[in-house]
């Protein structure tokens, strides 16, 4: 046991324990070193991969830039060639026009010469045909040479012309000219072979440009459609507003007509009610007057009328009488033989057969039985 300064007691390690601890520390140290080495190796591998990727990206960018530059150079070359071809075509057209004029003049001269020759007996048709074919062949050769010359630039033609003029020997000059013509023809054939490829590339570029133009046109069409839609919506709003104003004016007119009709109907009903009341009052007055007149007439009739008797029944025995008033029939009942009645045209009379005669209704009144 060993006591420390703080007063705690400890037991020191033995040699075996110290060896075990030392071995454990060594193992831990080796593990840490291995881990650090592995980390460093991984970092190096990642750095190498990153550098390789960066190099690859740089190479791809360089290739892409070169391709783009080549494409732009090719397009510029094609454009320049097209411009040169257009200029050459214009020059060719001018030269062809001049040649056509010259040919027309030559043909006119030839026709004049042929007409002259026809008049001469020495010339024949076969010779004329041979001459014409030779002339046409010469013209074709000249046309091919002319085409080859036109395919070459003006500077090269001027340089070749100067070289040929500098040569004094005519044979060498002619040989140089022929050699130059063959070189130009070969270049023209090579150019004809290259032209389709350039035309294909230009066609591809044109298709791409057309596609872009189609997209731009589609966008412009959409914009125009939107503008037309906005214009149509505005016109519809204006039409709707005009329609609402028209309907409002129609409603106002209908309301005015309705109020006018109401006033007219009110006045008409007032007039009709007044007329009905007037007619009712008049009929009432007329009825009252008629009733009062009837009452007065009834009162007078009641005053003049004699007392009523029972109805005289008919009898089986009849007799006739002739008075001053006229001829009438007299009916006599067997039970009432003491009475007799007869009627005249104007008066109704009653007679008592056995007693005195009683006359009634002398004023014209009619007695009811």
TrEMBL record:
Biased composition (Basic and acidic residues): 52-72, 107-133
Coiled coil: none
Extent of Acidic residues compositional bias: 81-106
InterPro entries, alphabetized: DNA/RNA_pol_sf (IPR043502), Rev_trsase/Diguanyl_cyclase (IPR043128)
Region (Disordered): 52-140, 155-176
Name this protein carries in UniProt: Uncharacterized protein
